[in-house]
Design brief:
The protein is mostly helical. It has one domain. The chain has two helices and no strands.
């Protein structure tokens, strides 16, 4: 509908059960754009969860590797100490 100031007013068919006096319904009724945004948000959250899982697993493996390396270094240090003691005795 063309307004006197030149702007257009468009009328759309409302869904069955629409109550213009129910102000709360407007807050909870999602639009197509809202549903699309919700899908994108859910996908983003799923991606973040996958990335978090990957990071947690990676950190756990890194910590295990760090522990193994420390143990190897301790063994090497012990071998070196034993070698030095043996060289000092001879």
């Amino acid at each position: 509908m063309l307004q006197s100031d030149g702007s257009m007013m468009r009328f759309r068919k409302m869904h069955e059960g629409y109550d213009p006096t129910d102000r709360r319904a407007k807050l909870v009724t999602t639009t197509a754009r809202g549903r699309a945004a919700e899908r994108v948000a859910r996908d983003a959250i799923a991606d973040m969860r996958d990335e978090k899982k990957f990071i947690v697993e990676y950190v756990a493996k890194a910590q295990a590797n760090e522990k193994a390396l420390k143990e190897l270094l301790q063994k090497l240090q012990k071998i070196e100490e034993d070698r030095l003691k043996a060289a000092a005795k001879s």
